[in-house]
Design brief:
This protein is about 25% helix and about 15% strand. The protein is of the alpha/beta class. The chain has 3 domains: about 300 residues, Beta Barrel (Catalase HpII,  Chain A, domain 1), CATH 2.40.180.10; about 80 residues, Hemocyanin, N-terminal domain, CATH 1.20.1370; about 150 residues, Rossmann fold. Strands 1, 2, 3, 4, 5, 6, 7, 8, 9, 12 and 13 form an 11-stranded mixed beta sheet that branches. A 6-stranded parallel beta sheet has the order 18-15-14-19-20-21, sandwiched between helices. A hairpin with a 2-residue loop joins β10 and β11. α4 runs antiparallel to α5, α5 packs across α13 and α13 runs antiparallel to α14. It starts with 5 loop residues before the first helix and ends in a 14-residue tail after the last helix. The protein binds CIS-heme D hydroxychlorin gamma-spirolactone 17R, 18S. GO terms for molecular function: catalase activity; heme binding; metal ion binding. Decomposes hydrogen peroxide into water and oxygen; serves to protect cells from the toxic effects of hydrogen peroxide. This is Catalase.
Length: about 750
């Protein structure tokens, strides 16, 4: 061990960072846990901490008050080659506590023991009361410039690039819950603009359950697990949720979105995002417009099937975060366009008769086009999940000059809640000084002291007016780009606990959403309601929700009632005469397949040259090929990523069969529940199961050579979306075309119109 040459030692233990980057550029599947390649033997040579993986990013090294330091981001991480105390004193041993003899009690004086255990005892912080489970990534937002006419916000000026951190989340489950539950998803973006941070705290659904923030504890208490047994985790298929939403009918619109395919996204990369509320923009001239924010994914909006979602909860509960990080690592950077719907800022605050302050309503895109104003690219994964994804703190009041709020009563309540919640979750009022939350703009706030104060404020006069600090800091005016509180006129009115009458319509837009769905999407919604209400215990709750469904649409109500074995009630309100909005449907268009996963079933005795060509072609198409073989290790010089024992259909967007592998030694057809049909088979039964599941989930399946016989044995040959090709290249081309539509729904004619 040569401790005088740590850099040299690094080389001996791990590949250098540049070699690793070269590796990452060569076709390789994502998922390597670290930046070095470990040796079998335990390393013995001290060296500096390994560099982050090439795809990892970290918050800039700003000071707590927003100044650039110029230090590399790894300066925030561990330093040096030797183990130290938190004060930097080098330690001789961390495996044995200091005892009164080898068999004696631990000594009170063991400061290292106490420091290590005490810190460990306090590693957890309260999880978010909602949106506890999330995954974050760094990226960059580039403005197109066309919003300059309506807002003075500098980061929306043409060509401006702004660093961002995005956190996606589920709402209901705890931090350890599964990713693919049926739920709304959070889509929160922190724009580190040079005029102050802007947080766009959005969801993947454009409406919310309630119209007034004071109801938030009610809906969340109803949707969270029952207080006595704490079940079910991370889902709405239970009595308290349906009890609340069937009584509080303004929740019906959001409930329908949750029951639609939007509730089970294929990926964070294939979700839309919505600011929900109406915001107010103000331009250089002081003119205002009202807007709704939209995120449009480059890959289109796609979902899992319900069976896939359920299977994934067991097979890969981290499916969405893995997909996000693997896509970034593979270079298939997730992309969205930010768009705005723009409405005139009239005293009524309505558009086409729709109340813009009612968060249970949308404005159909056919009535107000979504105008793209910039592009978001996520291109770096976090270096440390806790420091970044867990400690990031969003707040609707983080607004730059040019963006202001409206009187939406939900938005107004959120303006209070987000700071309040961070005080407990992040342990005090200085959460803005945590590295991931540090602004990229100069901070001069006169806020002082408090737990975990990282800044070292100079000056003696943190008050205004003062003369002792020469009057600093000074209020800014328009010329200095001060934040604009738009002087909106508030109509003289009595103080009341009441909603405007326009908030009373709870059904017309729910019907609009239902009627905008394609037949296959309607079928999924019917099944989702039937499942969720079927999981409720109380008959009264099912009947009450059926009444709500009758007020949305008779077909929806009848079909769900049939599944529940209950009579379908008649509507109690006139069915609204609405114009469907085709933009709400997810099917019927074509999208790129970047970063999608293609499983390739390999027979070690089959056409391995063909497999190598197809594997490369999948890489070249910007997708990730995973070889599925009877055993691990290598096949034909290629690494095997999944075996028949470890792989499962739900991981793949499409499957290619490059052979008809015979049953492997570990296949036990008669009793292995993964083995599929019993009895002697020419093909490994788990391959047949894979094909059957992919077929049921409407995925494209291609085969060539001996692989074609697998299609026949699985009984799927000749059905829509099944490709029997003459070569691997031909099979891949056909499968790629099918993947553009996401699923082969023609395989399953819908039972409703
Ligand atoms: Fe939130 N919400 N929310 N919410 N919300 C939180 O803030 C709250 C609402 C949303 O990844 C909490 O830091 C109230 C709508 C996202 O860190 C909390 C109301 C929308 C996230 C809170 C709402 C959202 C949160 C919990 C009713 C979509 C995750 C932890 C007025 C537009 C952010 C935290 C992240 C998180 C309160 C309604 C989106 C408690 C009171 C509507 C994406 O402050």
């Amino acid at each position: 061990m040569d401790s005088s040459k740590p850099a040299e030692a690094v080389k001996n233990v791990v590949k250098s960072a540049s070699e690793k980057i070269a590796d990452a550029l060569s076709p390789d599947v994502p998922g390597a846990p670290g930046s070095g390649t470990p040796t079998v033997e335990e390393p013995t040579t001290p060296h500096d901490p390994l560099p982050p993986k090439p795809e990892q990013g970290a918050p800039q090294t700003r000071t707590p008050t927003g100044a650039e330091t110029g230090a590399p981001t790894i300066a925030n991480g561990q330093q040096g080659a030797y183990l130290t105390t938190s004060q930097g004193a080098r330690l001789r041993d961390t495996d044995h506590s200091l005892k009164a003899g080898p068999r004696g009690p631990i000594l009170m004086q063991d400061h290292h023991f106490r420091e290590k255990i005490t810190h460990f005892d306090h590693e957890r912080i309260p999880e978010r009361v909602v949106h506890a489970r999330g995954a974050g990534a760094h990226g960059v937002f580039t403005a197109y410039g066309n919003a300059e006419a309506v807002t003075r916000a500098g980061f929306l000026k043409k060509g401006r690039e702004t660093e961002v951190f995005v956190r996606f989340s589920t709402v209901l489950g705890s931090r350890g819950s599964a990713d693919t539950v049926r739920d709304t998803r959070g889509f929160a973006t922190k724009f580190y603009t040079d005029e102050g941070t802007f947080d766009l705290v959005a969801n993947n659904m454009p409406v919310f359950f309630i119209q007034d923030a004071i109801k938030f504890p009610d809906i969340i208490h109803a949707a969270k697990p029952h207080p006595d047994r704490e079940i079910p985790q991370a889902q709405s298929a239970h009595d308290t949720f349906w009890d609340f939403v069937s009584l509080h009918t303004e929740a019906q619109h959001h409930a329908l979105w949750n029951m639609s395919d939007r509730g089970i996204p294929r990926s964070y990369r294939t979700m839309e995002g919505f600011g929900v509320h109406t915001f107010r923009l103000v331009n250089e001239a002081g003119e205002t417009v009202l807007v709704k924010f939209h995120w449009k994914p480059k890959l289109g909006v796609h979902s899992l099937t319900w069976e896939e979602a359920q299977m994934l909860n067991g097979i890969d509960p981290d499916f969405h975060r893995r997909d996000l990080y693997d896509a970034i690592e593979a270079g298939a950077y997730p992309e969205w366009e930010l768009g705005i719907q723009v409405f005139p800022d009239t005293p009524e605050e309505t558009f086409a008769g729709i109340d813009l302050l009612d968060p249970t309503k949308i404005v159909p895109e056919e009535l107000a086009e979504v105008q793209p104003i910039g592009k978001l690219v996520l291109n770096r994964t976090p270096t440390n999940f806790f420091a970044e994804t867990e400690q990031v703190a969003f707040h609707l009041g983080h607004l730059p000059p040019g963006i202001d709020v409206t009187n939406d009563p939900l938005l107004q309540g959120r303006l209070f809640s987000y700071v309040d919640t961070q005080l407990t979750r992040l342990g005090g009022p200085n959460f803005s000084q945590i590295p991931i939350n540090r602004p990229h703009a100069a901070v001069n706030d006169m806020l002082r002291d408090g737990f975990h104060q990282h800044a070292v404020h100079a000056g003696v006069a943190p008050y205004r007016p003062n003369s002792l600090d020469g009057g600093n800091p000074f209020p800014a005016g328009d010329a200095e780009n001060a934040f604009v509180d738009v002087p909106v006129t508030v109509t003289q009115a009595p103080k009341v606990r009441a909603n405007p009458a326009s908030f009373d319509d709870h059904y017309s837009q729910v019907r609009l959403f239902w009627l905008s769905m394609s037949p296959v999407e309607k079928e999924h919604i019917i099944r989702a309601y039937t499942f969720e209400l079927g999981k409720c215990y109380e008959q009264a709750i099912k009947e009450r929700q059926l009444q709500c469904l009758a007020n949305i649409d008779p077909v929806l109500c009848e079909q769900v009632a049939t599944g529940l074995g209950l009579p379908a009630p008649q509507p109690t309100v006139p069915l609204a005469d609405v114009t469907p909005s085709p933009a709400l449907s997810q099917v019927g268009r074509e999208w790129p397949a970047d970063g999608r996963t293609v499983g390739i079933v390999v027979d070690p005795d089959g056409d391995l040259d063909g497999v190598a060509e197809v594997r490369q072609a999948v890489f070249d198409a910007g997708m990730v090929p995973l070889l599925i073989a009877p055993h691990g290790g290598m096949v034909g010089g290629m690494p095997v990523q999944r075996t028949f024992a470890t792989g499962r259909s739900v991981e793949f967007d499409a499957v290619l069969l490059a052979g008809a592998p015979a049953p492997a030694p570990d296949a036990i057809p008669a009793r292995d529940d993964k083995a599929g049909r019993p009895g002697p088979a020419a093909v490994d039964p788990r391959v047949l199961l894979l094909v059957e599941e992919c077929w049921r989930h409407a995925k494209a399946i291609g085969a060539w050579g001996a692989g074609v016989t697998v299609l026949e044995q699985a009984g799927v040959a000749g059905t829509p979306g099944i490709v029997a090709a003459g070569s691997g290249a031909e099979a891949l081309t056909a499968v790629q075309q099918l993947m553009a539509a996401h699923r082969v729904w023609e395989r399953f004619p819908a039972s409703v119109a």
